[in-house]
Structure formats: C-alpha cells, structure tokens
Amino acid sequence: MPRKRPGRVRTKNTNRREALKLSSMAPEDFNVRPGETKSIACPDCRTWRRIMGDKVLKIREHCISDKVAEGEKHVTCPGSNQLVEVNIDVRRWQAKQDRLLRDAMPQENRRAAQQFYKPLPAPAAPVSRIKAEVTLESSRQSYLAHRKGCTRCVGGQHCTDGGILARRYVLALQLEPTRREAREQMERQERRIARELAEQWPTGRRQQWAKHGGKAVETTNNRCAERIPGSVSEFRGPRLPLAPRDMEAHDRRQAELGKQYAQRKSAASAA
C-alpha cells in the first residue's frame, strides 16, 4: 500500500499574520488526528480547508465563494496561506473528541467496549437428584419414565440414575404398609372426634347457656335499650329454640358432615 504523502507547500508566501495557534480555537474547529488529512475551519470564511505542509503548516489558498465554476468572481480569502501552529497535546485532544462523539451518538448506535454475554442456564437436575416428597405412585412413575427413555436400562441392568430410582421405588414399596396403617389410624381418629363433636353439640350449647345466660344476661340486655313495660326478654321467650326440632335428622346430618370432613382431611394429607 503506497504511503500517503502530506500536501506540499508550493509557495513560501504567507498572509503576513501571526501564526494561528490551535489552543486559541475551539476543539471542534480543526482536525489533526494522526493518519488523517489535517484540516481546519478558516477563521475568515468559516469553511473547512486543508492544512498543507509537513513541518511548516499553512491553510491552503482558497476563494471566498465556492461557486467560481458557476460564473462568480474569483476572490481570494484573506485566510489563505495562514500559518498554523500545533501547540496542543494531540492525544489529549483526540481522547476528548472521541468522548464527545460517543456522547453525541444515539443510544441505539452505541456499543460497549467490552461485550457481556448472558450466561447459559444450567442444565436441569435429573429426576433421581430432585428432592421431593417420595410416594409410591411418584417413585413408580419416575422409574417407569426413566426406563422408557434410557437405552442402558435393559432387563435387570440399570444405569446410575436408573439404579437410584429403582432403589427409591423398592423402599417406597416396603414403607407403604406402614404409611397405609398410619393413614387409616389418623382417619379413624378424625372420624371419632367428628362423631363426638356431633353428639356433644346440643349438650354443649346447653352448658354454655347455663353458664353465661339467665338473669345476668337478661339484666344486661335490658340496660342497653328502653323496654316496653310488661314485655318479656327474648332470652326467656318461649320462641327461642334450645334444641333441634328433629333430633334424629340433626344427628344424621352431623354424622354426614363429619364423614365429609374426614375425607377432605385424608385427601389433603395424601396430596
């Protein structure tokens, strides 16, 4: 690749002004990046012009108007052949310009210097290592599903995971009678408690009324609001029921509710 040569200064003439120092100009009005063509905004006509030379830098001779080819008069700009002095730290200026360009760039076009990649999700743990409640049905289904999809579990041979699932299924089979007996005992106890509660409900209500009712409750109730003279309190009224009308139907209904409660309790514990 041929080396890019700087523009030659074809004349020694200058505009007889003092050298233009880059430190006195705005940082965005010139470009002195290494490896790029040096250019500057002419202080007189405010157009971008090339800086010629390698050691002695000058602004290239140019016209005031850019429409000479269209017939306008050729008038040389007073800023032509202006000496330029690079009295700034080019690296610091370049770093500042890069930062300004990055800040002015739209957000969707920005890109971080270091790329961060989202880590891949960890593979799911095999069924044999998942810690969950082990029941006879769940261990059986896990073992059969593994046997169906594993090519190394053939006949009486098992792979590592298949052996773990098989031992878990055998252990669940051995513990199933004990668990069944415990569930049945719990159900019998819950049914007995429900039956006792159903039998004791009318008697318990009577005991509560005998303990907290009577004259004291009537006196307190009469203090709360004015009573019509000669009226009888509802606590002693004959229309207040103290027992169900049909005791047999009531007991039958309470027994059914106790059975339903026991069934829901057993289903919740089995799940």
Describe what this molecule looks like in 3D.
- It is built from five helices and six strands.
- The chain has 271 residues and is α+β, with helices and mostly antiparallel strands.
- It has two domains: 83 residues, no CATH class; 112 residues, no CATH class.
- The model has no long low-confidence stretch (mean pLDDT 79).
Summarize the helices and strands and which ones pair or pack.
Elements: E1 20-21, E2 30-31, E3 39-41, E4 48-52, E5 57-59, E6 83-85, H1 90-104, H2 136-149, H3 160-212, H4 215-224, H5 247-270
Parallel strand pairs: 1-6
Antiparallel strand pairs: 2-3, 3-4, 4-5, 5-6
Helix pairs in contact: 2-3, 3-5
